[in-house]
Write a structure and sequence with these properties.
The structure holds 2 protein chains of 2 kinds.
Chain A (H helix, E strand, L loop, with lengths): L17 H17 L14 E6 L5 H12 L3 E6 L11 H10 L4 E6 L4 H6 L5 E7 L5 H15 L6 E5 L6 H12 L3 E5 L15 E3 L2 H7 L2 E4 L15 H8 L3 H5 L6 E3 L12 H4 L6 H21 L13
Chain B lengths: L4 E4 L1 H19 L5 E6 L2 H17 L4 E5 L29 E9 L3 H10 L7 E9 L11 E5 L6 E6 L1 H4 L3 E6 L4
Parallel strand pairs in B: 2-3, 2-4, 4-5, 5-6
Antiparallel strand pairs in B: 1-8, 7-8
Helix pairs in contact in B: 1-2
Classes of the chains: A alpha/beta, B alpha/beta.
Chain lengths: ~325, ~180
């Protein structure tokens, strides 16, 4: 039996094989239904304790993980950096080891430093799930984006996806690029030169300098948030100018040869990288992305909880 | 290589299902509130055929559902996560007569899990269990209400149910354990 498993941690999509990514997407599929039930709960993770360790602000991702955990019947605790011992100077590893001393099973971590999830995963026995580490990766966002694309286009192979905007600061962009290219999609990035890292072509993506080019080329646009909080001054002249040159507007989309699927990982800066009429338009899947996020995270939790590497495949005989 | 013994062929399965369908109607006291719930995977196809048979003889429209019990298993810890299938339960089960349909009844653990999962979809008036093959070996106090065939399985062998929709042909065979 050569069914792929995930291993102990989910740090990023870079380290996963195509088969592992497909396993995650296929496993997310049945979990969609659980959230549509009147009683939105299954007992799969009963007795597991999950700690959500969020060192950076997050609404969507943290709540999405919490729902995913609760709908799988796990016991969960959410820790924010402010108001915890972290603000007293405790190191990441000490925090996590103390949590482990209370016998936890999994840690979901968001951290401002690239590599924080792997660092932690290498040092504790619990499963670690990366919920965004610095500018490195945000694997569950990448997976939910890919799942949303697969829902609409039925397959990823050959699909043209343009990732637009602040690629430089974006872990979402990196996870999307790794995941999509592994599944055979064509990926381009588009944004002002100050926000598109020069070495990005090494990941196998094309750089399109103008938003009009991206709109003319792509089947789907993944419009990134301008990460104002990570920017010192000088990346862009002004928000207004950014919108004028790179904003995704109805006027620009109307010139496209076909209807484009519109995605955005949120939170949106309306009127900056995306116009309200586009975000709320008929081709926007921004809210279905959020719905898929819960299913994807349930799949990740489920597979990591059960999938010990090289564990015996001895599945009890049917019935 | 040890041989395969045929328990039921296509014709016998057809005949068995007709009998099971009429037993279901008899035991549930009519087709009125019946919901046939198949357990993934081969229970789903069998439930569909039973439903069609009952619809033919009773001239009634039957509700159906599919149940995947993977997330309700009692052996999830410590083994690689089994593949999760789709549950499809469109109807509130409150007040209905639910018939759980599965291909083989063995330890009873699948049915235990199915009962847990069914409870999430309402409070049926009654739940019946219909299986094509009862092979004994129960580990829980669960018995079928309707069984197509009851067999004793020799050591080292197991029951393999094939359905045309999934496997190309209908068959119930005794096969060596590894080949199942």
């Amino acid at each position: 039996m050569s069914a792929p498993t995930l291993g102990k941690d989910l740090v990023g999509l870079e380290g996963l094989s195509r088969e592992q990514i497909e396993l995650l997407l296929d496993t997310a599929e049945p979990f969609k239904e659980v959230s549509e039930r009147q009683i939105k709960k299954v007992p799969a993770l009963r007795g597991k304790t999950v700690v959500n360790l969020f060192f950076e602000a997050s609404t969507r991702t943290r709540i999405s993980f919490e729902f995913a955990e609760k709908r799988l019947s796990a016991d969960t605790v959410s820790v924010a950096a402010s108001g915890s011992s972290v603000s007293k100077g405790e190191t990441l590893v000490d925090t996590a080891r103390n949590l482990e001393a209370m016998r936890i099973d999994m840690v979901v971590i968001r951290h401002g430093a690239s590599g924080a999830a792997k660092f932690l995963g290498d040092r504790i026995a619990s499963n670690v799930i990366n919920a965004g580490d610095g500018k490195h990766e945000h694997p569950t966002q990448g997976l939910l984006d890919i799942l949303t694309l697969r829902d609409k286009f039925k397959k990823i192979e050959g699909l043209k996806v343009a990732i637009c905007g602040d690629v430089l600061h974006s872990r979402v962009a990196r996870s999307n690029i790794w995941g999509l290219t592994k599944l055979g999609a064509k990926v381009a990035v588009c944004g002002p030169p100050t926000l598109v890292p020069r070495e990005i072509t090494a990941l196998g993506v094309e750089v399109l300098p103008h938003i009009e080019d991206a709109i003319a080329w792509a089947d789907a646009l993944n419009i990134l948030r301008l990460q104002l909080e990570r920017m010192e001054k000088g990346y862009i002249p002004s928000l207004r100018e950014y919108n004028r040159v790179f904003g995704v507007t109805v006027d620009r989309l109307e010139k496209a040869p076909k209807d484009l699927l519109i995605m955005h990982p949120g939170p949106m800066n309306r009127g900056v990288e995306i116009d309200s009429a586009v975000a709320d338009g008929p081709h926007s899947v921004i809210l279905p992305q959020v719905t898929n996020g819960v299913a994807v995270r349930m799949a990740v939790l489920y597979l990591l909880a059960g999938g010990k590497p090289d564990g015996s495949a001895a599945r009890a005989e049917e019935s | 290589m040890p041989s395969t013994t045929s328990l039921l062929d296509t014709t016998a399965i057809g005949r068995t299902l007709v009998r099971m369908a009429s037993e279901i109607v008899e035991k549930s006291g009519g087709a009125g509130d019946l919901v046939l719930v198949g357990i993934q995977r081969r229970g789903v196809e069998l439930a569909e055929r039973l439903a069609q048979q009952i619809e033919k003889t009773e001239r009634a429209q039957l509700l159906r559902g599919k149940l995947d019990i993977t997330l309700y298993r009692d052996d999830l810890q410590g083994v690689p996560a089994p593949v999760v299938g789709v549950t499809d339960m469109q109807h509130d089960l409150t007040g209905k007569v639910v018939v759980i349909v599965d291909d083989v009844l063995y330890t009873g653990r699948t049915i235990r899990a199915a009962l847990d999962e069914l409870a999430e979809f309402g409070r049926p008036r009654r739940i019946l269990l219909a299986v094509l093959v009862d092979r004994g070996g129960r580990e829980l106090p669960i018995q079928p209400d309707i069984a197509g065939v009851t067999v004793t399985v020799p050591k080292g062998q197991t029951v393999r149910v094939s359905v045309a929709e999934r496997d190309g042909q209908d068959a119930v065979d005794l096969v060596p354990k590894a080949a199942s």
